[in-house]
Design a protein that fits this description.
Blueprint lengths: L19 H21 L5 H12 L5 H8 L3 H13 L3 E2 L13 E2 L1 H22 L4 H19 L7
Helix pairs in contact: 1-5, 2-5, 3-4
Length: about 160
Amino acid sequence: METPTPVPPPHAAKDVTEHVGYRLKRASAALRNAMDRALREHGLTVPQYSCLELLDEQPGLSNADLARGTFVTRQSANVVLRGLKDAGLITRPESAEHGRALPAHLTAAGRERLHAARRAVYSIEVRMIDGVPADRLAALLSDLDAMTEALDDRPDGTR
């Protein structure tokens, strides 16, 4: 049996914990855990909070729009929306006027819950970015966008 040819790492790193992907995943997991804890106090999950945020900015979004915006499947978004509707935080028509989309809107209770939860979520973001020098924040955000765009082109990684 032949020994496989070693694959060079994408950049100088002592081990996998120094790879960009590993560090992004670690930061993402830390953010998600902090948000889960904070939102639990408001009776919300991260996807529910994300839906409320999107609907506050863009009332009338469909299930498909919300699924894309919250990084969940359409089926998961439907479950999230059902929970928000049952809790009285959003409204959706029983049937579609045009096509199949059921536009969602925040209720007054949904707006109140969002604003209370937003304070907790924003305080997490402040804690997170406190570790980044202010003069480097814009570059960090730009770099994160560039990494996302580099991977979003095609599923096979080509441009």
